[in-house]
Amino acid sequence: MVPGGSGTRAADSALIEWLRAHAREPAGWFSVCTGAYLLAQAGLLDGRRVTTHWAYADALAHQFPEVEVDAEPIFIRDGDLATSPG
Predict the structure, then answer these.
(1) Tell me, what's the pLDDT at 25?
(2) Diameter of the chain by CA atoms?
(3) Residue 60 to residues 8, 22, 27, 53, 54: CA-CA distances in angstroms?
(4) Which residue in 1, 43, 63, 81 is deepest, having the highest Cβ count within 10 Å?
């Protein structure tokens, strides 16, 4: 599970590399709120449909155009990935 918070939109590069390195290990990923930014920065949301808090959805979509962002649902599951606005 990847939580949201103020540090997610400009995360430490070591954390992003850790997410990339461990992306195949769990049975799935779940992000809450702006935790989607961490997964997007790691390239793990490319080609996926996700949700995040409505206040950050437009910025996420703009910063990561390869991610389909939908701020309306309270939960989206896309294969082994689940996202929630928090």
Answers:
(1) 64
(2) 32
(3) 11, 22, 25, 10, 10
(4) 81
